[in-house]
């Protein structure tokens, strides 16, 4: 796919210890004139292909956009978000089902089920149900392994939290904010994304997004403590009037802020640990051990090492199970693909791209 407009890559869903979670409902705002095009259809019906066609067309127009990848297969797309046009195209099928709240006004359904041969599909009835059931079973097992890994990592966090010097973190955050974040007279807005995902391909982190940032602060932290610094920096940034992109950790998707991006300042703060390292040249490295009382931590170090090793193995086992789920999903994709009229899918994508192009022309 050719991309002339700048593309950033994220996940907007995650495989987590509490199961599959989705943030797709946060992608558009019904009150600001946003339009969401929701794709419906089964596996292998061309949803990712459809999104790629839109991305190629938007990129050719020179418009920047976000590509939202699938955590079941990071090589496939779940959506494209075009902030400048307030338009998004998203996969609205399970497990990240999206139903219109304002049909036709904000959301528009694009039904790719119109493009399959229902009679031929029904001939595969028993096989489809069998493999769909297998997929669910593999995901359930994968999430149990992630839950076990999360328990160990949270234990490490609690151990380290007892040894951390929070006043040092506060002072350090204040110094960074004073030096890097010049106040403006407005309130910033937070956008939530996942830069990291646990996928059948392994732990995938879209580090290439960082080429768009002039200053990259790499926080070396294997204790889960970087959230303490990042949360303070997020608060300072929002209060100073800067929009931020908060990227949470899929192991603790509701409370562990893992990376913080401030586009207007071209500043990124990223966590480097044994799951994802940032080895490229950075503006500054922050070793989180500077905030830890090593004398307090020393007696508990063996437990921390055990937790680290065991959690890594548990995550590895979950990835194997996710790979098994994808293998079965690929069989379903083959079944559905065999009964699809992809020329009809192509026509639907072309019609939508013409609408988006027209909107871009009107805005310019």
Describe this structure in words.
With 364 residues, the protein is α/β, with parallel strands linked by helices. It folds into two domains: 7-116 and 341-363, no CATH class; 164-292, no CATH class. The protein contains eight helices and 16 strands. The protein has helices spanning 47-60, 118-122, 125-161, 166-180, 226-239, 294-297, 301-337, 342-363; strands spanning 7-11, 13-16, 19-22, 35-40, 65-70, 73-82, 87-91, 107-111, 190-193, 196-199, 202-205, 215-220, 244-249, 252-262, 267-272, 284-287. The strands form four sheets. A six-stranded mixed sheet has the order 1-5-6-7-4-8, with helices on one face. Strand 10 (196-199) and strand 11 form a beta hairpin. Helix 1 runs parallel beside helix 8, helix 3 (125-161) packs antiparallel against helix 7 and helix 4 packs parallel to helix 5 (226-239). The two termini are 25 Å apart. The mean pLDDT is 95.
């Amino acid at each position: 796919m050719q991309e002339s407009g700048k593309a950033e890559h994220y996940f907007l869903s995650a495989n987590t210890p509490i199961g599959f979670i989705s943030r797709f409902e946060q992608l558009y705002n019904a009150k600001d004139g946003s339009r969401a095009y929701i794709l419906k259809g089964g596996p292998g019906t061309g949803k990712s292909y459809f999104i790629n066609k839109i991305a190629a067309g938007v990129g050719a127009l020179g418009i920047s956009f976000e590509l939202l990848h699938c955590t079941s297969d990071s090589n496939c797309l779940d959506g494209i978000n075009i902030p400048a046009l307030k338009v998004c195209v998203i996969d609205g099928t399970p497990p990240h089902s999206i139903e219109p709240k304002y049909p036709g006004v904000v959301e528009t359904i694009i039904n790719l089920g119109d493009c399959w041969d229902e009679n031929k599909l029904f001939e595969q009835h028993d096989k489809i149900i069998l493999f769909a059931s297998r997929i669910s079973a593999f995901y359930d097992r994968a999430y149990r392994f992630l839950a076990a890994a999360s328990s160990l990592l949270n234990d490490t966090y609690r151990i380290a939290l007892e040894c951390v010097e929070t006043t040092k973190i506060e002072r350090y955050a204040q110094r960074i904010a004073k030096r890097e974040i010049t106040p403006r007279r407005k309130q910033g807005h937070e956008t939530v994304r996942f830069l990291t995902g646990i996928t059948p391909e392994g732990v995938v982190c879209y580090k290439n997004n960082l080429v768009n940032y002039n200053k990259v602060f790499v926080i070396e932290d294997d204790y889960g403590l970087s959230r303490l610094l990042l949360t303070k920096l997020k608060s300072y940034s929002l209060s100073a009037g800067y929009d931020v992109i908060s990227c949470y950790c899929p192991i603790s998707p509701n409370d562990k802020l893992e990376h913080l991006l401030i586009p207007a300042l071209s500043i990124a703060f990223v966590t480097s640990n044994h799951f994802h390292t940032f080895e490229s040249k950075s503006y500054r490295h922050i070793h989180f051990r500077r905030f830890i009382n090593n004398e307090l931590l020393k007696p508990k170090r063996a437990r921390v090492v055990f937790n680290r090793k065991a959690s890594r193995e548990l995550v590895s086992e979950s990835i194997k199970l996710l790979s098994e789920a994808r293998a079965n999903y690929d069989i379903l994709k083959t079944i559905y693909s065999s009964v699809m009229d992809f020329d009809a899918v192509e026509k639907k994508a072309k019609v939508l791209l013409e609408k988006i192009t027209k909107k871009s022309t009107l805005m310019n």
